[in-house]
Amino acid sequence: MLSYRTANQSALDGLDALDISGEARESLRNVLKGNLEFMDACLSKGTYTFADLQQFSQHVKPDLQKNIWLAAGTQVEHWIQVVKDWKETLGEDWPKTYGVSNTLYVTRQNNIIFSVLAQFFGKEAINTRLFLFETQAFTTTPDKMLEVLIRTVADRSVGKVFFGDYYLMDYELMGGDARKAIQAQAQKLGMEAFLPPPVPFHSTEWPWRIDPSQGEGPATIEEIK
What we know:
- The chain is mainly alpha-helical.
- It has helices at residues 2-13, 22-45, 50-90, 112-121, 142-163, 175-188; strands at residues 99-103, 130-134.
- A two-stranded parallel sheet has the order 1-2.
- Strand 1, helix 4 and strand 2 form a beta-alpha-beta unit.
- The protein is extended and about 65 Å long.
């Protein structure tokens, strides 16, 4: 905690050097000061209670929401400009370009980089030239992403040659027959098979949940009561 306190203090000391609005700077300052106050109290007592944590969370919550908006806006503004420049540089070669982003489960829904890329690639490129690959870590390397991309595209030719469909290998090869096996086993056990509807191998759907009727509760921070 002492080490983390030092990092927070350094961030607070350097706030004035940031090229941001006064409102954003004040919001960041409030959170950093709140962090320091909470850590100082914990260090002085040698412990903390759940009530202490709740009080701290409510104290910083209003500014946290502002900072999340600031962070999201900063990332989007940056990547929109980056991809715009890439597209202009590639010119006529853009329609032959592949785009990939990586994700863990917790960053899959509304993935920022993928969503920005989709604005420039368009719907028709999703799952064709634009991919969201699940990896084992938040960060990855260009070589690792290229390896997964090459395998995905190369496997399409295999699917076409051996099975007659270019996109079959994008998905679990045994998935279709496994559905039939699950249905058969469920029938033996007197159960009703619980499976999603089959969809075409070549789909331009977003690679995450998009049907609001299949869930309940808030979908944004602002909706949380």
